[in-house]
What does this fold into?
Amino acid sequence: GEDVEQSLFLSVREGDSSVINCTYTDSSSTYLYWYKQEPGAGLQLLTYIFSNMDMKQDQRLTVLLNKKDKHLSLRIADTQTGDSAIYFCAEKGTGGFKTIFGAGTRLFVKA
Amino acid sequence: DAGVIQSPRHEVTEMGQEVTLRCKPISGHNSLFWYRQTMMRGLELLIYFNNNVPIDDSGMPEDRFSAKMPNASFSTLKIQPSEPRDSAVYFCASSLSWGGPGETQYFGPGTRLLVL
It folds into this structure.
């Protein structure tokens, strides 16, 4: 079945770049998402990318998609302490209601 | 729009009691999802509805769990009887299905459930 995998933890220093990686199995994925969950809150959409794109940039965020390897990454430039959160990778296939979420990567930003 | 509204935000109950969680999706959204989040199991999809009809409830843990969506603006998730292992954060999310980026799910703030 469909699966989304990501590493559980990442620790970076303030001002450095963070790269969070994700792999997925569904080759029919049409949309791939990054959600952010801050402590005590629900998930919020950060950004998404269509499967026919390789890259998307949105201010400090860069999403790279390697469709051949089914690999998605999120790069956060100039990481700030406010970026400390859990980041979820998610994918959605064609014609389905269901979005498959990864387990989430907990990002720690050290001052 | 106020976003997805969930109530209560916190619930503490004793084992064996009935628990009812409530959700009001974003107006105009036609898909609604119930998730459970724990440290051990991460984010689990329990059930989702489209146009008020349950589409897939394969994630519901057992018969103690039930969900209803009597109309487009309200859904409930009920646990009866509750057990300590049901302690988790329960999220409701809604989306406008069959759109492009509109298929994004919008999450509520969650209900933190503790069963003693």
Notes: The CA atoms of residues 53 and 65 of chain A lie 7 Å apart. Chain A touches chain B at residues 31, 33, 35, 41-45, 48, 50, 88, 92, 97-99, 101, 103-104 (CB under 8 Å).
